[in-house]
Specification:
Structural class: mainly alpha
Domain Tyr recombinase: 98-271
CATH class of the largest domain: Mainly Alpha
Number of strands: 3
Strand order of the largest sheet: 1-2-3
CATH topology of the largest domain: hpI Integrase, Chain A
Number of domains: 2
Shape: globular
GO molecular function: DNA binding
Protein name: Integrase
Order of helices and strands: HHHHHHHEEEHHHHHH
Number of helices: 13
Organism: Paraburkholderia steynii
CATH architecture of the largest domain: Orthogonal Bundle
Keywords: DNA integration, DNA recombination, DNA-binding
Largest sheet: 3 strands, antiparallel
Helix content: 40-55%
């Protein structure tokens, strides 16, 4: 490990950046240095610009994939190397705004009915019933299920924040059935490797198999269930601020995007088409002649 890499790692650890962020930033900077065959200390804004052009034009990376590379370089040069460079030296691409595809209540039920495994049914039901991220479901421990207070404790979710979410009585029944069948010790949903929780990839694969069995044409991922959780809460009258707390969003604007897809918002206004006078009925087409 070079001294610069070690110093950047220490800077990220001091600021308590998430482990995945640390790994991503180191990988991005390493790729940047290897591309030019030089230490990042010897590279400047023009090299950063050339690197971003290469990622966009040669590697065909989308805007969402360019942002981690830019974030890593910003951290390296501004924090670790203390370069007094402006935002213009790290241009962020404008990402297209896409709304998630939302499952209806009936589609969620159909999806759950297509999961034959009790373990994976419990995992994906927990993701929907509590609005958890895939990593948060995977890292639940048995002690996080508090049936006395009817809450689930989420330890160190995104941005290293703890929070509590509701424990659905129906979900509690499912988890108790799963507990009697699997008898998990430490992790609520253990993985194939002893002492480790289930992997995110295993959950994604189970989700994809269930989608195929269900026959639902909409895309379904574990995160789709989280989107459905927030949208269904909003459609049934839950306050946006309360949804923000349950989802663990840092900003209310992140939660507010569900206002654009909830039927309680989109369908609350009557279309002017419905206010038009009834048109005259269309004339009936002439009857076809009979030849036999």
């Amino acid at each position: 490990m070079t001294l610069l890499r070690q110093r950047m790692l220490h800077d990220m650890q001091i600021r308590n950046l998430a482990d995945n962020t640390q790994k991503s930033y180191l990988l991005q900077v390493s790729s940047f240095a290897k591309h030019f065959h030089r230490s990042p200390e010897a590279l400047g804004p023009e090299d950063i610009r050339a690197w971003l052009v290469y990622l966009h034009e040669e590697r065909k990376l989308a805007a969402s994939s360019l942002c981690p590379a830019i974030g890593a370089l910003r951290f390296l040069y501004r924090v670790t190397l203390k370069r007094d460079w402006s935002d213009e030296d790290f241009p962020l691409p404008k990402k297209p705004v896409r709304l998630p595809v939302i499952l209806s209540f009936d589609e969620v039920k159909t999806f759950f009915d297509a999961i034959p495994s009790l373990k994976y049914r419990a995992i994906l039901m927990t993701a929907y019933a509590a609005g958890l991220r895939i990593s948060e479901v995977a890292h639940l421990k048995a002690t996080d299920i508090d049936s006395r207070r009817m809450v689930i404790r989420v330890n160190q979710g995104k941005n290293r924040k703890d929070r509590y979410v509701m424990l659905s009585p129906r979900l509690l029944e499912i988890l108790r059935t799963y507990w009697l069948d699997a008898h998990p010790r430490d992790w609520l949903f253990p993985g194939d490797i002893p002492g480790h929780p289930i992997s995110a990839d295993a959950i994604r694969q189970a989700c994809d198999r269930a989608r195929q069995r269900s026959g639902i044409q909409k895309p379904i991922t574990p995160h789709s269930l989280r989107h459905a959780f927030a949208t269904h809460l909003l459609e049934t009258g839950t306050d946006v601020r309360r949804i923000q707390l349950l989802m663990g969003h840092r900003s209310l604007s992140t939660t507010s995007r569900y206002l654009r897809i909830a039927t309680s918002t989109v369908c609350a206004t009557e279309s002017p088409f419905d206010l038009l006078p009834q048109p005259e009925p269309l004339p009936s087409p002439p009857a076809a002649p009979e030849y036999f």
